[in-house]
Amino acid sequence: MPGNPSPDAEQLLKALIEQMRPAVAPETGLIGIHTGGVWVAERLHQALKPAIPFAALDVSYYRDDYEARGLRRDVKRSEIPFEVEGRDLILVDDVLYTGRTIRAALNELFDYGRPASVRLATLVDRGGRQLPIAAQFVGARVDVEPSISIDLTRGVDGRLAFVLNRRAS
Amino acid sequence: MWLNPSNPQLDRKGQLHHLLTLEGLPAEILWQILDTAKSFVGVKVKKVPLLRGRSVFNVFFEPSTRTRTTFEIAAKRLSADVINLNVAVSSQSKGESLLDTVDNLSAMHADMFVVRHGESGAPHFIARHVAPDIHVINAGDGRHSHPTQGLLDMYTIRHYKKDFSNLRVAIVGDVLHSRVARSQIHALTTLGCPEIRVIGPKTLLPAHVEQLGVQVYHDMRQGLKDVDVVTMLRLQNERMQGSLLPSAQEFYKYYGLTDDKLAVAKSDAIVLHPGPMNRGVEIDSSVADGKQSVILPQVTFGIAIRMAVMSIMAGNK
């Protein structure tokens, strides 16, 4: 969009990795939220090398807009390859906005068990929260109009990039 | 909610509103159901909250254990409230009409009816008369259709064979009485399966069955040659009228699936059966329990398929 340069996702990822380095222990569970959050979690996992694999969460069954919008077409299966009970977890998403996705993710996580703690990491925080949710690790805060969506893409080379799109109203 | 006049299963946006038959259901919706079911297979949590606060009424005018139970499990895993009504032994036997039964159930604030009925077309009839926000799923009507069984068969075939575009599928036995066979033929055709065979004695194949685009065989060994998938149908003793068959023993001799008959199919062919099985009538125990049998996985996939259908429909407002 004119006047709104896309944030550099690879640059933000580096910043995020450095912020998180002291917080990620070998047994910390990284949990990416489909789809963009999983890409970010995968890269964080490569860089921070916790001893356990990263998890992928699809929160479609827990979304609060199911009544209004139905089930998304391309639901993925949530894969959590470690025990949630008693573990320190970090939820990972690409863009933090209203906080509703994170609410759904927390509900789903607690169906798996009672974690010791849950923190939140996001590449971009665009404000606009509708729920009392905050991220502990943030690549950057950006200010964009509500009519613009910030979408993460992944190239064939694996590089992450943000694109700004005007929302279909 | 306005239903699509050309296909009463779909709403005006072309989304699934009722599931009555697989005939005429667009491929896109079949793939959507299969993909969604895949996300439900192996879900580790016991329940997901999608249908919380909704009431699913299992209305069975005809006895069934497996289908009713799998619908019940599916609805409960979606957090719905499930009410099981065995209408065959209550209202109907007291003389209540089908519409009165449905009106009474609607007045109990049902969100979804899962209907099994001995008469072909009964679920269509109910779907036409319920309030517009109620969804109806056909759980088997007469000889007509059993769409969730057809879908779980498609799921099973896709799971083992990945792709429909190179498959040779044989459907064997009592095709005449089988709503499962019709549902399979429609779904396989829509999903692009190039060769569907039906195998059985003339008395148990519908007249002009080849007009459905299938090849007809009366000899088991010819029909099974080089097939990838074998679906055995149950011999429906309760629907037999008159003398369609000399005896179950003779049927077994010619059309029962034994190891030596299965040997003419491809070596990696899979064997499906909708259940309940008549061992020693349409299928030999050594095949039913053998390594090519996928009969028990079918039951597991059936729950995921029913979860997918219910959660897609309930989300389509």
Report on this structure.
The complex is a heterodimer of chains A (169) and B (317). Chain A is an alpha/beta fold and 169 residues long. Chain A has helices at 9-20, 36-48, 66-69, 100-112, and strands at 29-33, 55-57, 88-96, 117-125, 137-141, 148-154, 160-166. In chain A, 25% of the residues lie in helices and 27% in strands. In chain A, helix 1 packs across helix 2. By secondary structure, chain B is of the alpha/beta class. The relative contact order of chain B is 0.15. The A-B interface holds A 58, 60-62, 66-71, 73-78, 80, 107-108, 111-112 and B 15, 32, 35-36, 38-39, 41-50, 311-312, 315-317.
Topology overview:
The complex is a heterodimer of chains A (169) and B (317).
Chain A lengths: L8 H12 L8 E5 L2 H13 L6 E3 L8 H4 L18 E9 L3 H13 L4 E9 L11 E5 L6 E7 L5 E7 L3
Parallel strand pairs in A: 1-2, 1-3, 3-4, 4-5
Antiparallel strand pairs in A: 6-7
Helix pairs in contact in A: 1-2
Chain B lengths: L2 E2 L2 E5 L15 H14 L14 E6 L5 H12 L3 E6 L11 H9 L5 E6 L4 H8 L5 E7 L5 H15 L6 E5 L6 H12 L4 E5 L15 E3 L2 H5 L4 E4 L15 H8 L3 H4 L7 E3 L12 H4 L6 H21 L2
Distance between the termini of chain A: 16 Å
What is the CA-atom radius of gyration of chain A, in angstroms? Answer: 15 Å
Q: What is the name of the CATH topology of the largest domain in chain B?
A: Rossmann fold
CATH topology of chain A: Rossmann fold
The averaged pLDDT of chain A comes out at: 94
Major β-sheet profile of chain B: 5 strands, parallel
Strand order of the largest sheet of chain A: 2-1-3-4-5
- Give the fraction of residues assigned to helices of chain B: 25-40%
Tertiary shape of chain B: globular
Summarize the structure in short:
By secondary structure, chain A is an alpha/beta fold. Chain A has four helices and seven strands.
